[in-house]
Amino acid sequence: MSRPAMSRRRFLGIGGAAVLGAGAVAAGSPYLEGMLKQGQPGLLLRSAAPLPRPYQVRLPRPQVLAPTRSDATADYYEITQRPALLRILPGLDTEAWTYQGSYPGPTLVSRSGRRTVVTHRNQLPQPTVVHLHGGHTPTASDGYPTQLVHPAGTGGGAGAMAGMAGMAGMAGMSGGAGGMAAMDSGDGSSRRTYTYPVDQRAATLWYHDHRMGFTGPHVWRGLAGFHLVTDDEEASLPLPRGERDLPLMISDRSFAADGSFAYPALDGSEVTPGVTTPYMNGVLGDTVLVNGAPWPVLDADRARYRLRILNASNARRYRLALDPQPPGGGGLVQIGSDGGLLAAPVAHDSIDVAPAERFDVVVDFSRYPAGTRVRLVNRLGSGGTAEVMRFDVGGGAVADDSRIPAGLSTIAALDPSRAAATRTFLFQKSDSGWTINGHGYRPGRSLATPRLGTTEVWRFVSDFHHPVHLHLNHFQVVSRNGADPGPFDGGWKDTVDVQPAEAVEIAVRFEDYAGRFMLHCHNLEHEDMAMMADFTTR
Q1: Distance separating alpha carbons of residues 171 and 67, to the nearest angstrom
Q2: Are residues 418 and 527 in the same domain?
Q3: Closest Cα to residue 132, out of 121, 143, 140, 148?
Q4: pTM of the model
Q5: 451 in any annotated domain
Q6: What angle do CA 109, 528, 490 make, to 5 degrees?
Q7: CB within 8 A of 198, min separation 6: which ones?
Q8: Disulfide engineering: 24 pairs with which of 14, 20, 89, 532, CB 3.0-4.6 Å?
Q9: Domain boundary, last residue among 198, 216, 235
Q10: Does 265 lie in the same domain as 128?
């Protein structure tokens, strides 16, 4: 099958308002020029609370959760979603919505091929949904945004389900919750069990809230955690492990004067979703947290470390770099992406990380003199948001038998020329929200029906920065604007950063699970304001 590549020039010439969407204006305008800039979508929300100076606290490591029981084929876990007071800023308590009382939530570690069964109990004041991001998961446990886990004692009901801006034609939408109650596909219970087959390769996954219309405020308040998958292939490699294998959840937040999380929600009672108009493009915090701590410090040995970097911010993009660079550069050696190991390592001076993307990198601190203070900085930030964390390199000799092999894994390339179908998805702004192919999200309306066992090419066309996430299967990036993939597109992906006025093509093979799944923008403000779509595998 031959496919005409879509160039940047062709994108910009497709037809003005038809491409840019209602409310956008023609090429050459200040609005469009702003969208085409590299950098940040969204608007900075400044904290009212006094912020600490960077590098005053130690880096926390998320606790690894032990199973409540195990049998021959599965491990079983229980997690309670509940409010907790956390000391994030000095002298102030922050009420977070947490998994098991911490932010990030506890880390789950699964072995490939061995089922993981997680029961969540909701002791929060609002309904929730849990999505295992990057999980190859049947539809019943994928975290569809209306499969609610209700607050304890409420029994569900109409008041628990709100509408979503942009969902044209949904009965009762203007009336809020009442018209949406029928779409609540939960069972009214305050607990839900998710079964993950973990039939996938080793990778850094994460779990987070996915409630329709309110993912942004829920994740902002703390509902996110790591879920790591291991396998024999990865275990056979001499990569850093143990205390030198560090999950790093990077997120930006802002704080009210009393230390609570500040967020510009339209409706704090969660009847009406979305944010106030100035923040429609995305909410940017002024405080960078790593594993829930503001600008922390790690005492690092002069040895190799594996850093599992996750951008858990709602909208902020990062360009991460080491300062100072090690002699000769290339200090961030990428070994993995969203879907696990790359075929071979790639050395970077900096990496661009969009919301929900993961980058596994190895940093060799023996390349620095003892006593060096190495900052992980954000080249897309300014002021406090230009700082992320610091590594204080120790002195003396330490044992380190790790290394980075020249070959990491075998990755079979998908062949776009053998695709069963090519589909285009246009991500654009409308007068009322964010849309895909001109539609605001409506549960149950599928924009695609791929057949299991087939490969398809999906083209994502964008008016703005949109990190596009695909549920069910990982994919491979085929091209950007008809040219080669970018330097950060390698390996198996589940989220791809689509730049303003860009067309990105991916190849994806649909396997194993029939049913209803999703693709959506992972700028959480865009997602909450209807930039989601269903697809149904059959």
Answers
A1: 43
A2: yes
A3: 143
A4: 0.91
A5: yes
A6: 50
A7: 110, 111, 112, 113, 114, 115, 116, 135, 229
A8: 20
A9: 235
A10: no
